[in-house]
Design goal:
The protein is an alpha/beta fold. The chain has ten helices and seven strands. The strands form two sheets. Strands 1-2-3-7-6 form a five-stranded parallel sheet, sandwiched between helices. A two-stranded antiparallel ribbon has the order 4-5.
């Protein structure tokens, strides 16, 4: 378990990440702030506390490094912010989000050669399949590193996810830790109203996965759960974490609704939102 001061530092980074998200989306007048804000705590812990990675020397093959794949690529603002704050590129580049000829497109792109991005994503359902290929490559190369993925709960309505889940269990892919952003909302409304996910932990267990659950806004709990998941790798079963979050977390008028899935705040709304979040690392 991390010491309290270190937990505070992670919380401070997550606050800055949320500020970055809001300014990026508002500056482009386009993007997806809701899910991005909801996953800020998780990605902060993953990149600043949990993963073994080398921001200063990024390579696509990631030999002896942990790998992360963002399957729900529309929440690129949170990923770009975390990558920049972790040192993959300068934070000033966040101001080019969704701008013509820039690298930070609305959905992550490999042809733009953004450090930290190893898979184009945005077409939902594909990230787990890609990740499993990387997992098996690492196994063949005797590379003990771990592959992490993040998926939206609405994304689980894609059949390819469950095909990949079956494959992972059947082939005993035990160097993957998948996380589901379980906020209960998607672009058209609540997941319960669109297509209910039912007993989500039970489904993953039935597909042969080890299942953990956590509060996606409790840094201490995220640290502990990811550490536990890591300790469970190498035992013949894939691992999934069901992460309960709130879309728009940290901004009071964005929480409690799917409205902010893909809507940019106007200047007045941006000022209101930024007033609720502490600037900790300096705005870009």
């Amino acid at each position: 378990m991390k010491k309290q001061m270190e937990i505070q530092q992670l919380n401070a980074i997550a606050s800055q990440v949320r500020r970055d998200i809001l300014r990026m989306v508002s500056g482009a007048n386009s993007g997806h702030p809701g899910g991005s804000l909801g996953c800020a705590d998780f990605l902060t812990v993953l990149y600043f506390e949990q993963m073994k990675h080398n921001p200063a020397n990024f390579t696509m093959d990631a030999i002896n490094e942990d790998v992360f794949f963002l399957s729900n690529g529309h929440i690129s603002p949170v990923w770009y912010s975390v990558l920049a704050r972790a040192g993959y590129f300068q934070a000033e580049e966040l101001g080019t989000f969704r701008k013509l000829n820039g690298r930070l497109q609305g959905h992550p792109s490999v042809d733009k050669k953004v450090p930290g991005v190893r898979m184009a994503s945005g077409s939902l359902g594909q990230g787990l399949s890609n990740a499993l290929g990387t997992c098996q490559t690492k196994k063949l190369n005797n590379d003990p590193s771990i592959v992490y993925t993040l998926h939206g709960d609405g994304e689980l309505q894609e059949g390819q996810i469950w095909e990949a889940a079956l494959y992972a269990a059947a082939k005993k892919v035990d160097n993957i830790i998948a996380t589901i952003d379980y906020n209960g909302r998607q672009i058209d409304g609540d997941t319960e109203d669109v297509i209910s996910l039912g007993d989500l932990p039970g489904k993953w267990r039935a597909f042969g996965w080890e299942v953990l659950e956590m509060d996606g806004h409790n840094i201490t709990e995220i640290v502990a759960t990811l550490a536990k998941a890591k300790s469970m790798t190498g035992n013949g079963k894939p691992i999934v974490i069901i992460m309960k979050t709130e879309m728009g977390q940290g901004v009071d008028f964005m929480m409690g609704s799917h409205k902010w899935h893909g809507v940019a705040p106007n200047p007045e709304q941006l000022a209101n939102a930024l007033g609720q979040l502490e600037e900790t690392l300096g705005d870009y």
